Every structure is written in structure tokens, then in C-alpha cells.
Amino acid sequence: MAHDSEPGYRIEDKGAYLARMREMLDVRMAADTHRRNHTLGVARTAARLAEVYGVDPFLAEAAGLVHDWDKVLEPSELLARAAQYGVRVAGSPANARAVLHGPVAAFELPQLFGELPDSVFQAVARHTTAAPDMTDLDMVVFVADAIEPMRRGDYADALRAEVGEVPLARLFFDCFSQGLTYVISTGRYLYPTALDIYNTYALALNHEKG
């Protein structure tokens, strides 16, 4: 499948660029080997999904490598940075701490990786909460976070089985829906935009069915 190319960025040696990103990731997550290994798994999985669904695999892998860049921060530091950057939070910021690392990192990463297009940073921002207008790159990173090899369970296996068998929007919706079900079943805080996102894609996909 041909890849959708994106104008606005020019990186001559993409392999070397990704290698530098991995080196920086090693430093960033030196104290959390599990998080580092998860991140590398997401990056590889995102690149494979990109190949399947016609997305730029370099951008997908790059976004995967930095999607949890700020997961190493303490919750109080995330809250402080979110306030500093003016990150828009639906509902209570304190209740949203678990999802802030994506949008906070999206403000900081351009300073480190300014050669990358904004679409990469948007995918990082959206991998925690999603959005009603997800791009293909956004969806690839979101799904990769859920199905990378370290993820165990029937939910991950079911989603992996769908790769290449269903359209990307359906794969994303099924992934998002499983996450929604998990949050509700465990009595956790549900980010306020979740139901709107669910309904947006449910209506769109049902409309496509006729």
C-alpha cells in the first residue's frame, strides 16, 4: 500500500534521526526500563501499522518513540506544566492527571525535535484521550499503544487479529471502545470527552454500513 506523504518536513537520513531519538529516549527513561521497552514496542508496532494502512512509517515510529516522553514526570509536575502551557483540560485537571503526559509533551517536544512536522506532536497529544477528528497517524499511534507486544490479554489479541482485516477507523474505534469499557468496569474516572468521541465514530461507522 502506498504511504500518504506529508509536506512540510525534510529529514535526509531518517534512520539516523530515529537512532538519535532512541538514544535520547534511553537517557530520558534510564530509570524506568519497563517504560522504555514499552515505548520501543509502541514505536515498532506503529511503524508496522503504518505500513499496513498507508501512513508514513517514519512519522509513526517517531511519534511512538516520544508518545510517553513525559510519563516519567511526577503528577504534580505534570499539573504544573499543564497550567504553565495552558493545556486545555476537560473537567478537573487533578482528575485528568493520568492523561496529561500526552498533551504536555506535545508542547515540549518541538524544542527537541523541531525537524518533525506538527502531526507527530498532535499524535502524541491525542494518544491519551483521542479526539473526534483523529487523523490516520493519530489512530496508528493510539492503537499501537494498546497492542504493542508487551500488552497481554484477550483484548490485545482481539485487536491484533483485526489489523489489516478492518479499516483503520474501525480498528481505532474498537480499540477506543475497549478502553472505554475497561475504565467504566473498573470504576475509574472517565475523561469528559470520551462519550462524544465514541458517539462520533459510532455514528460515522454505522452510517458507512448503511
Structure description:
The protein is mostly helical and 210 residues long. The protein has 10 helices and no strands. Helix 2 (33-53) packs across helix 7, helix 5 (101-112) packs antiparallel against helix 6 (118-126) and helix 9 packs across helix 10. The longest helix has 21 residues, at 33-53. It is globular and about 45 Å long. The chain starts with 13 loop residues before the first helix and ends with a helix. The mean pLDDT is 94.
What is the count of DSSP helices, taking H or I runs of 4+ residues? 10
Instruction: Kindly state the percentage of residues in helix.
Output: 55-70%
How many angstroms separate the termini?
A: 27 Å
Q: Structural class, from secondary structure content?
A: mainly alpha
User: Radius of gyration, Cα only, in angstroms?
Assistant: 17 Å
Mean pLDDT metric = 94
In one word, what is the shape?
globular
Summarize the structure.
The protein is mostly helical. The chain contains 10 helices and no strands.
Key attributes of the depicted protein:
single chain, 210 residues, mainly alpha, 10 helices
